[in-house]
Amino acid sequence: MKLYYSATSPYVRKVMACAIVRGLGGRIEKHASNPHASPADLVADNPVSKVPCLITDDGLSLFGSQLVCEYLDSLGDELPLFPEHGAARWRALKFQSLGDGILDAAVPCRGEQGRPSEAARDAVIERYKAAISRSVDVLGADPPHKHVDIGSITVACALGYLDFRFASDPWRSGHPKLAAWYEGFVQNKGLAETAPA
Ligand SMILES: N[C@@H](CCC(=O)N[C@@H](CS)C(=O)NCC(=O)O)C(=O)O
Q1: Band of the pLDDT at 77, cuts 50, 70, 90?
Q2: N or C: which end of the chain has fewer CB within 10 A?
Q3: DSSP string for 19-82
Q4: Does pLDDT of 76 surpass 90?
Q5: Which CATH number fits domain 86-188: 1.10.10.10, 3.40.50.300, 1.20.1050.10, 3.30.70.100?
């Protein structure tokens, strides 16, 4: 399988963490790509020019971390990361949405911070930061379980991205239960082997 990737993308980290947990890390050939430059090969496989984008061994192109992770979950014999049904499924998918929601605010927020300051930009940044802050509050009140699934992996990748890119806005403050959960969870090899540097 071929994965268009960028080394610092938290969505790519999520995909690689799932692949490692499912014992598939060695089957993925990483292909470095800068999605912001809309390179011809990436655009041919993913019209919206984003990473991660996975080309399966059958030649199918799959993009969007949720879809790619679900595909990886269909391969191999490890325990599933997407619980099949019941409360565990909806809880895992809700945590995935929360983690992705943090990233969907944090990633463009960082883009905005690179632009010249003006009132409209500052208002957009504040809105992104408020969404991140509310989401971390929700996680702080009810952190994921220790169990490794798509929800806990996504939340850990989101918090890891906040550490990586927003170190001056410490999310741990006021959220001791979440901080304790995170410190234990990132020892998992899928997270430990993909920490951004
Ligand atoms: N919803 C997508 C988001 C992926 C995404 O935004 N990736 C960023 C890199 S962190 C990207 O490729 N950005 C390029 C762009 O926005 O043009 C997913 O879950 O994979």
Answers
A1: confident
A2: C
A3: HHHTT-GGGPEEEE--GGG--HHHHHH-TT--S-EEE-TTS-EEESHHHHHHHHHTSSSSPPSS
A4: no
A5: 1.20.1050.10
